[in-house]
Amino acid sequence: MLTGRGMRLSSDAPLPNATPETLYSSPFVRRLQSDLLHSHQLARHYLQAAQRRQKDYFDRQSFTSTYEPGDRVWLLEPVPPDRVPTKLHRRWEDPHVVEHAASDVTYRLSQPQRPQWSLVVHANRLKPANQARDSSEDSTLLREGRL
Fold this sequence. Notes:
Layout: H1 27-61, E1 72-76, E2 92-101, E3 106-111, E4 114-122, E5 126-128, H2 135-144
Antiparallel strand pairs: 1-2, 1-5, 2-3, 3-4
């Protein structure tokens, strides 16, 4: 049993509250209700403004490299495999070859040493490999049609 208002069911949750605004007759309660509503709207406004500022700041500091098919990239593996000590773990794996871009920020990679192997990764885990290619590796890529 509820005093002064109807019982709300779980099916009423997505719908707006249908109870009248002037449920309370006390001026203090009405003013408190309007003050709470105003402070909630003000807090929402300032949180959205802060969120926009933080996003703008983050976007100024960040950049994403774009890769073309055939580009050589290093792959970040932050967690070592089982039974490999962390201090011996190489975080950046041998250069991989970009097969194609699955989206703006995801790429399918392959390794010349393992032709059947491929992996789709986010651009955050990649960095360009700026070293000269091995000629034997180039001939392998040419034979497979990947270069």
